[in-house]
Amino acid sequence: MKLTVLGATGGTGRELVRQALERGHHVLAVVRTPSKLTIEHENLKVVQGDVLSPNTDLKGSFEGQDAVLSCLGNSPDSTPVTKLIFSRTTIYTDTMEIIVKAMREANVKRLVCMTSWCTKNNPKDPGPRIIEWILKPLVYGRVLRNMGIMEDFLIEKCSDIDYTVVRPPGLTDKPASGKDLAIEERMFVGGAPQSIPRTDVAKFMLDTLSTDEYNKKAVAIAVSK
Prior knowledge:
225 residues, alpha/beta, Rossmann fold, 8-stranded mixed β-sheet, two-stranded parallel sheet
């Protein structure tokens, strides 16, 4: 398949590119700083660009592609905690509106993107206490809220796009778990570990491209016990 990857210099994005190339896909990575993507492969093309910049030809990077995969967003590893707590976050909604517009112009229908567990509040099915009582109100609330609005945009206004929203718990750089993933069309996976290797997330994102099972769905994933 011909894939365009956004956010390819982040931890999960790099893993997504690596695994896609291993599977024999042709990858076009749109990145702000090409030097940060050190992967070299005959099937990899790196294009400098910023999704939020009007000077970036996103439509051109989507034309002729089979799918767009996005790992764009705030990285807790590189974003100061004070900024996560106090700054208004709109990167998820801002970028997704631009991505969908360019996909429509390029006639590309398949989209896979990543958000997180517990992007929305559900009093009838609350998430783990550490997320709902500590992390959400004190640290990641603004980020999760914007992720949730982005998800609503896809669900409510993008019926023409075959999207899959992947909601993982906390991301780690550990090796692949080697286990099957628990997958639920829900805000989280009950009773599951609250962290997951990026390698597992990237693998699942690529796996969704070979099935219609997750089209037009937002699913939470976790490593099975």
